[in-house]
C-alpha cells in the first residue's frame, strides 16, 4: 500500500478526484457490510476526513484498496464503540430512572471508556493481564504473582504502568 505526502494544493486536487471517483463505490461497499446507510455515510465521510488530515493520498492505481484499509479501521472503531455502549447500557439497566445518567454524561462516560479501552489495547499483554486481574477479579498483588508466576515486585510495576497509562488516557 503506497501513499505519498503531497503539497496542500496538489493534495486538495488529489482528494477531490479521489472523492469524486470513489465515494459512491465506498458508500455502497460500506452499506453492504454495515447493513445501514447512516453508519455507511458516516464512515465514508470519516474515511475521507482521515485521509485529508493525514496529508497522504493514495496512488491512483491503489485508491480503492487504500480507501478500504482506512474504512476498515474506522468500522472496527465503530464496532468497538458499539460494544462499549452496549456494555454501558447493560451496566446501568438496573438503575432507577432518576439515577440514569443524562445523555451528556452518557457521552462523556462512553468517551472515557473508549479511551481506556484504547489504552488497554496499547499496553503490553502481560501488563494488561495483570491490571485486569487486579481491577476486575479483585486479586491482590500477591495473588496475581502466584497465579501468573510473576515476581511480586514485577506485578507492582505492571500495575503502576497500567495506572499511569489509565490516568493519561483519561486526561486526554
Could you write a compact summary of the structure shown?
The protein is mainly alpha-helical and 172 residues long. It is built from seven helices and two strands; from the N terminus they run βααβααααα.
Order of helices and strands: EHHEHHHHH
Give the termini separation.
31 Å
Mean pLDDT: 89
Strand order, biggest sheet? Answer: 1-2
GO molecular function, one term: DNA binding
Keywords: Sigma factor, Transcription, Transcription regulation
Organism: Pseudomonas denitrificans
Family: Belongs to the sigma-70 factor family. ECF subfamily.
Using brief descriptors, characterize the structure shown:
DNA binding, 3% strand, RNA_pol_sigma-70-like, 7 helices, RNA_pol_sigma-70_dom, single chain, extended, mainly alpha, sigma factor activity, 172 residues, transcription, 2 strands, two-stranded antiparallel ribbon
Report on the architecture of this protein.
With 172 residues, the chain is mainly alpha-helical. Helix 4 packs across helix 7 (152-171) and helix 5 crosses helix 7. A two-stranded antiparallel ribbon has the order 1-2. It is extended, with a radius of gyration of 21 Å. Helix content is 78%, strand content 3%. It has helices spanning 8-34, 37-54, 63-92, 103-122, 125-136, 141-148, 152-171; strands at residues 3-5, 56-58. InterPro entries: RNA_pol_sigma-70-like, RNA_pol_sigma-70_dom, RNA_pol_sigma70_r2, RNA_pol_sigma70_r4_t2, RNA_pol_sigma_r2, RNA_pol_sigma_r3/r4-like, WH-like_DNA-bd_sf. Residues 114-166 form the RNA polymerase sigma factor 70 region 4 type domain.
Amino acid at each position: 500500500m503506497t501513499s505519498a505526502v503531497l503539497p496542500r494544493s496538489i493534495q486538495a486536487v488529489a482528494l477531490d478526484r479521489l472523492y469524486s471517483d470513489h465515494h459512491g463505490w465506498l458508500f455502497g461497499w460500506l452499506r453492504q457490510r454495515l447493513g445501514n446507510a447512516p453508519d455507511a455515510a458516516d464512515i465514508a465521510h470519516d474515511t475521507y476526513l482521515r485521509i485529508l488530515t493525514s496529508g497522504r493520498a493514495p496512488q491512483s492505481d491503489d485508491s480503492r484498496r487504500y480507501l478500504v484499509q482506512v474504512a476498515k479501521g474506522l468500522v472496527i472503531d465503530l464496532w468497538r464503540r458499539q460494544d462499549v455502549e452496549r456494555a454501558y447500557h447493560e451496566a446501568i439497566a438496573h438503575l432507577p430512572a432518576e439515577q440514569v445518567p443524562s445523555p451528556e454524561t452518557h457521552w462523556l462516560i462512553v468517551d472515557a471508556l473508549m479511551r481506556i479501552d484504547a489504552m488497554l489495547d496499547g499496553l503490553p499483554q502481560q501488563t494488561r493481564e495483570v491490571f485486569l486481574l487486579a481491577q476486575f477479579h479483585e486479586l491482590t498483588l500477591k495473588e496475581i504473582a502466584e497465579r501468573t508466576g510473576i515476581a511480586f515486585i514485577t506485578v507492582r510495576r505492571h500495575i503502576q504502568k497500567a495506572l499511569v497509562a489509565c490516568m493519561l488516557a483519561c486526561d486526554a
